[in-house]
């Protein structure tokens, strides 16, 4: 689902997710994920099948199927509208069936690439205030003159927690009798020079359309490097091109390398995937004693433990000098919000702790961060000859690095601040096993090659034992229709073709790692812009098209993404005050604090009001919501759209409230009487 008010973190971009029925935290190995029923049909009025969300209460009414979340604060409704002028009218008529009097304004309306036999597919999001902590949206699918409408009205907490189940329903929603393409038994074609040039041309044209300055690319098949290099520039000002050794932050693609280190330790007999975490690091805590005692090594990296994202703690309270122990401290007082194995919930602190524990096992007398860095160098980077890959910001900044970019308020690329002591990406340093590596397309292809060969080098030497390496791909929790998360790696099927993948995101950097075992193909794509997000799935689909002569969809995706990109920009700008309300900005306290997120200062620099929590800062504007609440809104391209609600506590102190899906944080002014 589109998120208008999102902000980069170490995103994996595994957004299409679903539920898993396995809930035994002490299993010897993950049980096969039990599929939901093949399809749900309801009388003659619904010409579709889909997978219903597990554990939601189902209510079937004439021309309406309704699902209520176990928490009671989320509803999905399926309604068929027989006649409507367009998707917006069909959606509004459906809302009147579910909730008579519904009159929210449309925030965003965009046609998507139609799938599963539908002739038209549209996503519509409706206005809500940040204080409501709710989301309202519709997915509208047309078959001839009938409109199938999927409505969602849910709290942000439940939507975040059960996003996987909603995506599963939406992704599986198919016209009755329609068969998607299936190349599961087809033989892949060779990626000859013509196909590689077609791929590069596609990336070059797409990057230009999406305003992505530079892209690193590498592709191999049958053990042969077919291409490593890039398109576009690493620096807009100098025009220097992206090359095979140009460095990008690979962000969450670090996770797969961290789990490869864990696999090496399993091979060495120094740990087992099902060892208790406390057997190797007794000071580890995750909430209660019972939860801590149940946690196994595999649970740190499977996204199946039920622990939600907790990114604000490192975004606001981290930096280059913060200790590695922060990752452990973040987990000590939190509990999972779903059962082990029940739902996919992505968390960055857990894999960070896994990496530090691996380093500690190998070098127990060293600091956690230094032990991890040394372990990765000696057991991963050196054996794979990834000589340009580094965790050192200083080395990366001094080397052949692609500068990071985002779009500014004028919809133009702007360079993001990234120095040794300033910039958003410095916040990842204490959490680097989850997302702190810099690498190049050439180096990342060596990592890809190791996955394709299951641990055997190009000269035939076995570098990693096959069984623990492949264990990382075993499904731990379902992550969508034919899609699963393992341990730092994802597995999914595109048109029946198995793809091993993972994505990554930091400020101004997007990455995607791709392995297609059946075609003996591996690829990596790295971008130096936040807008690179739109290119990742299209690149993957283009590869499938070239390998299997699949129906062309990648170009359509880019066209849709470019339109979506512009509409998101226009929506964001339309909702805020430019310039900001001077009276609101002038009434902000000079300094605020939160016991978890730390301090933030407010100052005026060159007539701009600046919010500064540490190693990054942002200019501010204001927003007035329909309910009368006032917010300050961050304008930094990395955090654009983040709102903090202006308020006052019971003692009269000024406050700023940050709402982040399953968490909320209140900053209180410091120094007030």
UniProtKB/TrEMBL annotation:
Gene source species: Aliiglaciecola lipolytica E3
Stretches assigned to the Beta-lactamase-related domain: 202-531
Regions annotated as coiled coil: none
Pfam families the record matches: Beta-lactamase (PF00144)
Domain of life: Bacteria
PROSITE patterns assigned: PROKAR_LIPOPROTEIN
InterPro entries registered for this protein in UniProt: AmpC-like, Beta-lactam-related, Beta-lactam/transpept-like
Protein name per Swiss-Prot or TrEMBL: Beta-lactamase class C family protein
């Amino acid at each position: 689902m589109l998120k208008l008010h999102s902000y980069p973190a170490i995103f994996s971009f595994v957004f299409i997710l679903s539920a898993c029925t396995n809930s035994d935290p002490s299993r010897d190995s993950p049980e096969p994920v039990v599929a939901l029923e093949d399809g749900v049909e309801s009388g003659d009025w619904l010409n579709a099948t889909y997978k219903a969300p597990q554990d939601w209460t189902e209510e079937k009414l004439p021309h309406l199927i309704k699902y209520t979340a176990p928490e009671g604060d989320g509803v999905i409704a399926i309604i068929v509208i027989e006649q409507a002028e367009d998707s917006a009218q069909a959606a509004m008529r459906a809302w009147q069936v579910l909730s008579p009097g519904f009159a929210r304004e449309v925030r965003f309306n965009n046609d998507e690439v139609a799938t599963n036999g539908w002739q038209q597919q549209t996503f519509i999001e409706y206005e809500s205030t940040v204080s409501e902590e709710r989301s309202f949206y519709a997915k509208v699918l047309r078959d001839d003159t009938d409109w199938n409408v999927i409505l969602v009205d849910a709290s942000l907490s439940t939507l975040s927690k059960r996003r996987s189940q909603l995506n599963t329903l939406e992704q599986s929603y198919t016209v009755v009798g329609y068969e998607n393409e299936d190349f599961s038994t087809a033989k892949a074609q060779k990626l000859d020079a013509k196909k590689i040039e077609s791929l590069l041309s596609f990336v070059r044209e797409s990057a230009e359309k999406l305003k992505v300055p530079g892209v690193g690319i590498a592709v191999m098949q049958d053990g042969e490097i077919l291409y490593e290099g890039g398109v576009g520039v690493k620096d807009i000002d100098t025009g220097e091109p992206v090359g095979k050794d140009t460095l990008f932050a690979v962000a969450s693609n670090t996770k797969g390398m961290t789990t490869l280190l864990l696999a090496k330790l399993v091979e060495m007999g120094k740990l087992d995937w099902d060892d208790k975490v406390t057997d190797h690091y007794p000071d580890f805590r995750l909430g209660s004693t019972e939860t801590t005692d149940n946690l196994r090594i595999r649970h740190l990296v499977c996204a199946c433990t039920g622990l939600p994202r907790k990114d604000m703690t490192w975004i606001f309270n981290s930096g280059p000098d913060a200790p590695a122990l922060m990752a452990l401290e973040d987990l000590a007082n939190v509990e999972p919000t779903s059962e082990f194995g029940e739902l996919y919930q992505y968390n960055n602190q857990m894999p960070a702790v896994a990496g530090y524990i691996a380093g500690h096992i190998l070098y127990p007398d060293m600091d956690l961060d230094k032990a991890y860095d040394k372990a990765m160098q000696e057991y991963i980077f050196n054996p794979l000859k990834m000589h340009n890959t580094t965790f050192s910001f200083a080395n990366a900044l001094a080397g052949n690095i692609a500068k990071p970019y985002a779009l500014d308020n004028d919809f133009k690329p702007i360079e993001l601040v990234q120095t040794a002591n300033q910039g958003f990406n410095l916040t990842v340093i204490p959490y680097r096993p989850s997302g702190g590596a810099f690498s190049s397309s050439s180096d990342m292809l060596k990592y890809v090659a190791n996955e394709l060969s299951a641990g055997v080098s190009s000269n035939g030497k076995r570098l990693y034992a096959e069984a623990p390496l492949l264990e990382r791909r075993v499904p731990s929790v379902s992550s969508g229709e034919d899609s699963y998360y393992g341990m730092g790696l994802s597995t999914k099927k595109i048109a029946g073709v198995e793809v091993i993948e993972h994505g990554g995101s930091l400020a101004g950097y997007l990455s995607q790692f791709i392995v297609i075992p059946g075609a003996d193909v591996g690829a990596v794509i790295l971008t130096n812009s936040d807008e690179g997000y739109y290119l990742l799935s299209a690149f993957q689909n283009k590869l499938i098209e070239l390998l299997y002569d699949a129906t062309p969809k990648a170009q359509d995706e880019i066209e849709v993404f470019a339109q979506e990109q512009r509409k998101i920009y226009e929506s964001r700008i339309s909702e805020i005050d430019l310039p900001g309300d001077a009276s609101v900005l002038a009434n902000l306290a000079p300094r605020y604090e939160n016991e978890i997120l730390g301090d933030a200062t407010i100052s005026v620099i060159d007539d701009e009001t600046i919010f500064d929590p540490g190693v990054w800062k942002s200019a501010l504007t204001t927003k007035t919501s329909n309910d009368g609440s006032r917010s300050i809104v961050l304008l930094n391209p990395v955090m654009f759209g983040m709102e903090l609600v202006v308020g006052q506590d019971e003692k009269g102190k000024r406050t700023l409230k940050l709402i982040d899906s399953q968490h909320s944080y209140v900053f209180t002014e410091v120094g007030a009487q």
